Amino acid sequence: MRRHLVYRLASFGLTLFGVSTLAFVLGALAPGDPAELFLERALGRPPGAEQIAEQRQVMGLDRPLAVRYARWLLAVSQGDLGQSWGAGRSVTRVLADNAPATAVLGITSLLLSLSVALPLGVASAANRHGPTDRASRAAAVLAVSIPTFFLGYLMMFVFGVKLGLLPVFGSGSPAYVVLPALTLSFATTGVFTRVVRASTLAALQEAYVRGALARGVSTRSALIRHALRNALIPLITVAGLAFGQLLGGAVIVEWIFAWPGLGKLGVEAIHNRDLPLITGWMIVMGVIATLTNLAADLACMWADPRARLRPHDA
Question: Which CATH class is domain 95-308?
């Protein structure tokens, strides 16, 4: 287990280096002049050539790309993500201000998905080929098939405009998170339900479960006490991967519902060509995705003692 952690931490560093380098290079090579765009927004009119040249010098864009990358990499290695050109504040501060909203949305969506998919998947496996199984499988396929942006606008129209039950824009009370979280969790719930059903069916065929049934243990007790823990292992793995995907999908959902999180911030940074904020945003998203995968690995080791064995012990 210790060797596995060392390997994952090493790969964590390489992943962050690759993501940050790719973000910097793509941002620097993207069409358009960030200095010109910045001055147009600030002045409200097209800037002159001298103004653009002066602003490029202020932003450090007059230096060669290799020099800019070396200076940026040195600063990042010291924990300095630079200053946001649009916000006029440190990138770290801007990201920290928006991270809690995305965390609330992502965690709420994940909990919603698990709370629905876990009992539905187990019930579907326990009643294989029955009405519950057929209905849950149809619902799972439907949930995965509906595009997120379409579902978001549909939720907004039905529950916000027509019924007036929930707010549709911004943040504030807990009611504001309901529609974005439901929209974001819909597809994930379908995936989780299918994973739980498949893993539970596989666990029910294991010898230890059949042995428990042969000893007179009820099907429900065998399912809950013996099969469920092993059935959770694939779900833990998929949930760890899905949390990163939830944060990626939050870009669309946050933009639709004007939720003030990292997803909306990333779209605005790209629109404004705010290169320090774009690269900092990608680094943070890479950190979150890598840490959630590592947490999922550790959870799988906890749930399955065989995963904690060293190769020569297995």
Answer: mainly alpha
Look up residue 306 and give its DSSP letter: G
Nearest to 243 by CA among 182, 307, 184, 175: 184
Query: Could you report the per-residue pLDDT of 82-118, keeping only the tens digit for each?
Result: 888 877 788 889 998 888 888 888 888 889 988 898 8
Percentages helix, strand, coil for the chain (3-state, rounded to 5) are 80, 0, 20
DSSP state of 46: P
Quick one: how far is CA 163 from the chain centroid?
Answer: 30
H helix intervals, 81-130: 91-126
Distance CA 58, CA 13 (A): 31
* Nearest by Cα to 196 from 107, 80, 117: 117
Q: Locate the domains of the chain by residue range.
A: 12-77, 95-308
Kindly report the pTM of this predicted structure: 0.75
